[in-house]
Structure formats: structure tokens, C-alpha cells
Amino acid sequence: MNRRKFLGAAAAAGILSATAPLHGAARRAAASDRAGSVPRYRIGVCDWMILRRQHVGAFSRAREIGADGVEVDMGGLGDRETFNSKLFDPVERRRFLDASAENEVKVCSIAMSGFYGQSFAEREGVVERMARDCINTMNLMGVKVAFLPLGVPSNLAENPELRPAVVDRLRRIGEMAEAAGVVIGIETMLDATGDVELLEEIGSPAVRCYFNFANAIQDGRDLSRELETLGKDRICQIHCTDTDGVWLENNPRIDMPAVKATLDAMGWSGWLVMERSRDATRVRDVIGNYGANARYLKSIFQ
User: Which of 89, 245, 249, 271 can pair with 296 through a Cys bridge, CB separation 3.0 to 4.6 Å?
Assistant: First the structure.
């Protein structure tokens, strides 16, 4: 898709152009990153996991936890043609950006978590619009990475017949993302070799792997080997937690210092985003669970 077609499609969707100027708060945040010393690794958290999905209070809660950033969700899908998102409203979007600036907590990424439960491969006629709306929102908020889980319905390990549809859609979305200067990070249930093959088949520098520790651990795969197989340029961000059970510092399934050594050797840098790894006996203790995990991650990575 060329630039003219992309901008025409964005206008047709009723969303502001992806190349529109950033809001003041987003400009200030981008300038701050350029001017300041940005840590090699920064710690983020998913807004839906801290019980603040699509809520400006996610930023103050993330600050209380000790996180550097928030992965902000686009909102639910249901049977709609696009996300049920507050971020489409310019007034609401400004509130999110102002809350980010006031709390000194970045928007590390935008999530399309609705695809955890809906089929990216099989939803007809609307997937490209959803992706386009997300990409436009990213540009308006100064965010460079979006999280796209292929989820259970589009699990290519169990449903290989869906691969042609997934590849075709990701190629088209990759064209939109590349034109907008952003990256779509996909999470699959494939191993690292399978992810490399999938990314090569898609063939877009704007579609990369959003690596999830839990997927590899549950399948008995070695985290460091998986990361090395993918290589630094294919990984845009990392969900750096396991399934719920115990805090990261008490988890024998993750050798976090070894993971850091691997990422250091690879030359990778970026956001490590907390998703789960809650104490199973107190899963709703947001501050206790994510505060403990943020402190532990910072003690290793910062």
C-alpha cells in the first residue's frame, strides 16, 4: 500500500491521519527520551493486569508499583467493526498523554488484547480496519510498538491451516505499519525457529516478535536459546513474566540473571513488560504483586 492509499484509508475510517502532529504531551515525552539518558532496559506493565484497562489511573498505579511504562490496551472487540476505545476520542487521548507526563510513566506500547480470544485469521472484513485504527492511534500518541497476540483461535501450532490467512493479513498490516513508521509485535505459540520462519514468510521489517517468557517456559523450551535463535532485530518487546503462581524472584523456572546476560550478549535493549507472575494466593493484590516483580526486575536489569 502506498502512502496516498494509506492516508486515504485512514481518512475513510474516520480517524485522524497517522502522520498528524503529536499532542503536546507526546512531543514532550519524545523530546525527553531524546535528551535524557534512557536506560538500556525499562520495565512496563499491562494496564489490564493492574485492573486499569483503558483508564488514565493506570499511570499513577504504575508509578506506585515502580514501573517505567504502561502497555495501554485498545479496548474490547466483541462483534464490533473496530475496538471500543477511549483513545479514539481526542479529549480522552489527551487525558492519557497528560497522565503519562504528570506521572513520568511512558506509554511503552499499545495492545490489541482483544485478539487473545478472537480469531485474527477468521474475522472477516474488519481486521485491517482494526489494525489501521491502532496504527493511527500509535502515531497520535507517539508510540512505536503495538502488541498483537494471535491467541488461541489463531494458534498456528495447532491450526496450521490458518497460516496462509495469517501471513496474508500480516503482510498487509506490515505495509501500513511500515508506512507509519511503527512496529507490530506478534505473539504466537510457535517456538523460536517457527517464529523466525513465520517472520521471514511475512517479509516485513514492521512485523516482529513480541516474545513471551511464559509460552516458552510452558513448552519446556530454554529461554536463552529461544532468544538467541530469534536474534535482537526480530524482538521488538518482551512480556517478561511467567504464568501466575509465585513472584518472579521466587520462580525456579526463570534464571533472570542468565536471561539478562543473554540479552546483553545479543545487544538487545528495550521494554520488559510485566503481565502475570502473581502470587496465586493473592492475585488481586495489584500493588503487592507487581510492586515486588518491578523491584526484582529493576534489581537485575537496571
Answer: 249
